[in-house]
Specification:
This protein has ten helices and two strands. By secondary structure, it is mainly alpha-helical. The protein has a two-stranded antiparallel sheet with strand order 1-2. The two termini are about 40 Å apart. This is Inner membrane-spanning protein YciB. Belongs to the YciB family.
Length: about 200
Amino acid sequence: MAERKVNPIMKLGLELGPIIAFFLAYGRLKDQVFTIGGTEYSGFIVVTAAFIPLLLVCTGILWVLSGKLSRMQIVTAVLVVVFGGMSIAFNDERFFKMKPSIIYAMFAGILGFGLLQGKSYLSYVMSEVVPLQDEGWMVLTKRVALFFAGLMVANEVIWRTMSTDAWVNFKTFGLPIATVAFFMLQGRLFSAYALPEEKKAGE
């Protein structure tokens, strides 16, 4: 299927919609207990059960509209199903909470493996969006790998030592804000290692 352009607002809504819905639903149901098939489930588990199909539907719509999904979107969807499903099956919210840690560890490991080979795997997925010289890609990849590792540690610390409310707030607001802030702080790197034609176009 050929890749097609999608309205940026619609794309953002499909990507963030499930997360926002999870946050709102959790806020309403967190203190409730639901008995299903003779087993009691917390509001967190019930919201997780609703989040999984919602995410899959939104991801499917995005694929139909754009004709393409990124590797990160595919991996995220798979891990949501696996770890969300385990949380529901074992009635244990810890599986779903550790899912971000697995994602960040995986991508940090992949980027780190590429760096050891002298390659920037990040450039394979972002080169069309951010044109940089090869040296710039290596620097950015190191920073992104360390950033992912830092997010993995932060997620582990928060879900293991803090309340579920704190983790939900971290996942809903902390992670997106940290990601946006990180890339905003790379402005000088983008400028220093921009391709020659990009520099000329900006003059």
